[in-house]
Design goal:
Layout lengths: L2 H18 L2 H4 L18 E2 L8 H17 L7 H10 L2 E2 L5 E2 L2 H10 L4 E3 L8 E3 L3 E4 L7 E4 L4 E4 L2 H12 L6 E3 L10 H15 L3 E4 L7 H12 L2 H6 L3 E5 L10 H12 L4 E5 L2 E2 L7 H22 L5 E5 L2 E4 L4 E2 L4 H17 L4 E3 L10 H16 L4 E3 L4 E2 L4 E2 L1 H19 L5 H4 L2 H7 L10 H6 L15 H6 L5 H15 L6 H10 L6
Parallel strand pairs: 6-18, 7-20, 9-10, 10-11, 11-12, 12-14, 13-15, 17-18
Antiparallel strand pairs: 1-6, 2-3, 4-5, 7-8, 15-16, 19-20
Length: about 525
């Protein structure tokens, strides 16, 4: 037998053993859900294996960020922000910019919230943002739905947002649901904020993130939140919604209305995502390291701001620098540079010991195709391996954040399953490296491990299996009618939506609809 033939023998043995047991022997299927402690992957597994920045690089970025805050500062703070920040020790210059002494930043870092828990409406969905615990979820403000059944882009609606929330509720590897698209069918801005919030809450009991388009809308939206929570006290005990707040307009400028929203949300007990979203080469510097410096400086200003309002207020360090394709100036969310930016930001979060979030999983492709697959996989993998606490925009996002795809959300659950398995890493224990199994197989045994007790025991706890990914042989694929991945994604999406109901009780839903103008069913 040739060397190539000998190398192929184990593969032939596997195929033969699989066929002998029929199709069911080749497909891993759980007969019952695994106990949480036994699942091979789950929310909050620690990452941190990947570090694109050296320790010296992290320290240099920190010093540069402090220098930027002292020497450049931020402009355009609202009057309320000027009062809050100068009262804490920031300096208002004659040029209208607020500058931050290093000692002030260090003092506020000392009292900032750490080991933050983002609550779900069900305790099993709580997200513990400590250390390098990793969680994946949605985010963004897409203005289109990528409709694969019609092969078109169309305006996103409140019903689409509700459907996305319902699908997310039924996906194991998507751990939270932040508003992913704009309800373009809702014309009134207050109604849009209410529908955005309520569509998310109706669809899932996982932690929800949302934003408010005007400071005057916050009070009414909190009335809705208190209705869902069962009162203000219950809300404050377990705040299950966070405010995604673009409090800065890069470079180094406060967003006045968003700052006023942030102030109100902090006082009402809502966790705040301090979001700095510069675009390298456009609204952030082109060097990757300097883009991180600017994002860190802006978010440190946010840390001072929030803790000057309420020391220890729950806040997420949301450095979200994006990438420009410098040939055109267009955003490049699926690039390798984006993956590096996000991973580098995660290292800075760990340096400060603060709960952090950033973006990954964005595709520049218009459809869930091969390009989308490599872009989503690479950026999410680096984000997870870097130990990023909150990976936003991880699934569903296309066309550089302009389109959201429900089928891609379903497909993304498979991608995240594989990513989380990489995050978990390799378990090296006395049992996992003991050679007893090798002895049994090789010394008078069958010469393979297919039916070994160890193999069967680890089948579900060591390995992760895709729900939609196709591992058939070509022959089996032909016999099955040559199923296509996107067709399977459409089918799973429709199956989930056919079964998924509202997560709000009928009586409470009726009360909310009698008070607010709700646009979805």
């Amino acid at each position: 037998m040739s060397e190539i033939g000998e190398m192929c023998e184990p593969a032939r043995a596997r195929r033969s053993a699989g066929r002998s047991g029929g199709r069911s022997a080749r497909v891993a299927a759980r007969s019952a859900p695994l106990d949480e402690a036994l699942r091979p992957i789950r929310a909050g597994m620690p990452g941190g294996q990947y570090k694109p920045l050296t320790d010296a690089g992290v320290a240099r970025i920190h010093q540069a960020a402090l220098q930027a805050l002292e020497e450049v500062g931020l402009s355009n703070a609202p009057a309320s922000g000027v009062e809050i920040l100068t009262g804490a020790g920031a300096i208002l210059g004659e040029d209208g910019r607020i500058r931050f002494p290093r000692a002030l930043v260090e003092d506020m870092l000392a009292v900032a919230c750490r080991d933050l828990t983002l609550h779900g409406r069900e305790e099993k969905h709580d997200l513990h943002l400590s250390g390098t615990n990793v969680h994946f979820g949605t985010a963004g403000a897409a203005v289109h739905i990528v409709d694969l059944e019609r092969n078109e882009y169309r305006d996103s609606t409140a019903q689409d947002l509700y459907n996305a929330a319902r699908i997310t509720h039924n996906l194991d590897n998507v751990h939270f649901f932040q508003r992913a698209m704009v309800c373009r069918d809702v014309v009134d801005n207050f109604d849009m904020d209410v529908n955005t919030l309520y569509a998310c809450l109706s669809g899932t009991t996982k932690h929800v993130g949302t934003s408010f388009s005007d400071p005057s809308h916050v009070a009414g939206c909190f009335d809705l939140l208190h209705m869902v929570a069962g009162g203000e006290a219950a809300w404050r005990a377990r705040p299950f919604v966070s405010n995604s707040n673009c409090f800065v307009v890069p470079p180094m400028k406060f967003a006045e209305e968003s700052c006023r929203v942030m102030e109100d949300c902090v006082r009402r007990g809502m966790p705040v995502l301090l979001l700095s979203a510069g675009q390298a080469g456009a609204t952030a510097p082109a060097p990757i390291a300097l883009a991180i410096v600017q994002a860190v400086a802006e978010c440190l200003a946010g840390v001072v701001y929030v803790n000057a309002i309420q020391p220890g207020a729950p806040a997420i360090f949301g450095t979200w620098p994006f990438v420009s394709d410098l040939r055109t100036g267009a955003m490049s969310g699926g690039s390798a540079e984006q993956a590096l930016l996000t991973a580098g930001c995660a290292q800075m979060h760990r340096f400060y010991g603060l709960p952090g979030g950033a973006a990954a999983g964005i595709s520049d492709s218009k459809l869930p195709d091969m390009q989308a697959g490599w872009e989503q996989a690479i950026t999410n993998t680096l984000a997870g391996l870097s130990g990023l606490n909150m990976v936003y925009e991880a699934v569903g996002m296309h066309a550089s954040l302009l389109g959201f795809c429900l089928e891609s959300l379903v497909l993304g659950d498979d991608i995240l399953g594989q990513v989380l398995r990489c995050v978990r890493g390799i378990d090296v224990t006395e049992d996992s490296v003991a050679i007893d199994a090798i002895k049994e197989a090789c010394l008078g045994g069958p010469g393979h491990y297919l039916g070994a007790d160890q193999t069967l025991r680890l089948m579900q706890t060591e390995y992760v299996y895709p729900a939609l990914g196709n591992r058939m042989s070509p022959k089996e694929w032909v016999e099955a009618g040559k199923p296509l991945l996107l067709d399977r994604a459409i089918a799973r999406k429709n199956d989930i939506l056919a079964r998924a109901g509202s997560q709000i009780s009928p009586d409470l839903d009726a009360a909310i609809r009698s008070r607010f103008n709700i646009h979805f069913r």
